[in-house]
């Protein structure tokens, strides 16, 4: 089944006809003959979508929509209203009451099924984002959204000859406080800053569906794929209307441009776009929080280990070296004991910032644990890695950190360095272990120093020893470092 739909209608024949049509489209259908019966069904099991008649024995369809919207579970439930005739005033009243769409009898099966697919897709996408947002809030990782919202940016793209489009845009500007812009179809795909929140594609009279091509291109474009798309079809364009919904249109006006209806639908799409943007931003923040250290903003182990594996694979393929530095703050426990944990946090944050300020964009910096930091440097040999580590030690020792109370504190670093080589295919964790051992040696030597891990022995290819020659720097040891900040 593709979804569970509740059909609410007092006329048994209407319910049966809808059940047959929806069942043929593989929907599970539940029926109710009154608003009270429908609400009772929804208390037991909430459907995926509701189709209700505008007139019920015990209440109006709009009253049922209002009752649904008053329940937490029904706030975002898609509701389609069925009217006995296509009365513009009644259609607008139903949309204003909270119905997501309005269908007039006799119902066009092609357009109806396309509308249902579109509404259910939108519901599922929003539900997934909302679920992740709710999880983040339960974990205390999300903040309340700001009450202030900036005006939306709406683009109207008329196809064909539509001299009334300019007046429509002017009238929309008077109805909404948002920015409304009329755009020529030939200029519609040009990237705009800011990106439009809603794009209205309106087919003109006599149009052959030129807007469908534009709609598909906008939905596929990286700059507009998250924009809400409203497609305006002419009354004779039932196939184009159904195709537009299946191609990704968020909403549809099937009877041509109408100022009042477009205003209502724009308000709803703007609200949904803002909700989707907020949920998407919260999800991205959650992903970022999962791979970064909350205090320093540096990457954590979850991100670092896969990154090191990719770095090692690339190093092997391209036969280029890389270096791993394990840095540890000296006597950090004494900082916490003497000045408090707030001071310790300030020291960690200051070190993280200095590392970011004095390393390349390509270098990965991670908080490895406690006061220990790991730095991965691609395309870096032993000499460049050693010079970098020594420079970092000097930066820390020569620049005291300002503590929250205003006191200045000098903190030093000890660093262990390990590098790969063309002959060395050591796994990243083994390279980290070598750097870690070098770090302990640096601690034993008195701290505030750098120790290079011994390179791994090259594989023996012959028993006779090679002729010994004086050591000399290899190309990999001479990788240039940016001139700024050199010592």
UniProtKB/TrEMBL annotation:
Q: What class of enzyme is it?
A: transferase
Enzyme Commission numbers on file: 2.7.7.65
> What Gene Ontology molecular function terms does this protein carry?
diguanylate cyclase activity
> Which InterPro entries does the record cross-reference, listed alphabetically?
CheY-like_superfamily, Diguanylate_Cyclase, GGDEF_dom, Nucleotide_cyclase, Rev_trsase/Diguanyl_cyclase, Sig_transdc_resp-reg_receiver
Catalysed transformations (reactions): 2 GTP = 3',3'-c-di-GMP + 2 diphosphate
Q: Where is this region: Disordered?
A: 446-487
Q: Name one GO cellular component term.
A: plasma membrane
GO BP annotations, alphabetical order: cell adhesion involved in single-species biofilm formation; negative regulation of bacterial-type flagellum-dependent cell motility; phosphorelay signal transduction system
Q: Where is the Response regulatory domain?
A: 4-120
Q: Which residues form the GGDEF domain?
A: 320-455
Which protein are we looking at? diguanylate cyclase
């Amino acid at each position: 089944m593709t979804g569970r739909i509740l059909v609410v209608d007092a006329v048994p024949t209407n319910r049966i006809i809808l059940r047959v049509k929806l069942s043929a489209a593989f929907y599970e259908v539940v029926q109710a003959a009154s608003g009270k019966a429908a609400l009772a069904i929804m208390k037991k099991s909430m459907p995926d979508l509701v189709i209700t008649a505008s007139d019920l024995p015990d209440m109006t369809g709009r009253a049922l929509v209002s009752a649904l919207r008053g329940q937490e579970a029904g706030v975002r439930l898609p509701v389609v209203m069925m009217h006995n005739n296509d009365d513009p005033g009644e259609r607008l009243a139903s949309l204003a009451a909270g119905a997501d769409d309005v269908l007039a009898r006799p119902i066009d099966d092609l357009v109806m099924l396309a509308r249902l697919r579109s509404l259910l897709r939108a519901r599922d996408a929003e539900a997934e984002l909302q679920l992740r947002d709710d999880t983040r809030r339960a974990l205390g990782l999300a903040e309340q959204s700001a009450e202030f919202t900036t005006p939306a940016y709406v683009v109207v793209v008329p196809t064909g000859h539509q001299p009334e489009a300019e007046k429509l845009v002017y009238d929309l500007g008077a109805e909404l406080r948002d920015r409304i812009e009329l755009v020529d179809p030939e200029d519609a795909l040009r990237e705009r800053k800011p990106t439009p929140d809603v794009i209205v594609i309106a087919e003109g009279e006599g149009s052959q569906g030129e807007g469908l091509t534009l709609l598909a291109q906008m939905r596929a474009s990286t700059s507009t794929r998250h924009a809400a798309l409203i497609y305006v079809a002419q009354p004779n364009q039932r196939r184009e209307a159904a195709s537009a919904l299946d191609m990704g249109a968020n909403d549809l006006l099937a009877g041509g441009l109408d100022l009042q209806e477009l205003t209502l639908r724009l308000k709803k799409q703007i609200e949904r776009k803002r909700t989707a943007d907020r949920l998407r931003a919260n999800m991205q923040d959650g992903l970022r929080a999962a791979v970064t250290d909350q205090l320093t903003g540096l990457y954590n182990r979850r991100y670092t280990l896969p990154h090191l594996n990719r770095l090692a694979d690339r190093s092997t393929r391209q036969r280029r070296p890389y270096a791993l530095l394990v840095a540890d703050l000296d006597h950090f426990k004494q900082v916490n004991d003497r000045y408090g944990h707030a001071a310790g946090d300030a020291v960690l944050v200051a070190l993280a910032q200095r590392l970011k300020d004095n390393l390349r964009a390509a270098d990965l910096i991670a908080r490895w644990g406690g006061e220990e930091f790991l730095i991965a440097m691609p395309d870096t040999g032993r000499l460049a890695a050693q010079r970098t580590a020594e420079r970092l030690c000097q930066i820390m020792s020569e620049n005291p950190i300002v503590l929250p109370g205003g006191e200045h504190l000098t903190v030093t670093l000890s660093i262990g360095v390990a590098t790969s080589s063309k002959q060395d295919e050591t796994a990243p964790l083994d390279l980290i272990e070598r750097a870690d051992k070098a770090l302990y040696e640096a601690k034993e030597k008195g701290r505030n120093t750098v120790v290079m891990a011994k390179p791994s022995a090259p594989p023996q290819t012959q028993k006779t020893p090679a002729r010994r020659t004086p050591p000399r720097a290899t190309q990999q040891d001479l990788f240039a470092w940016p001139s700024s900040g050199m010592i």
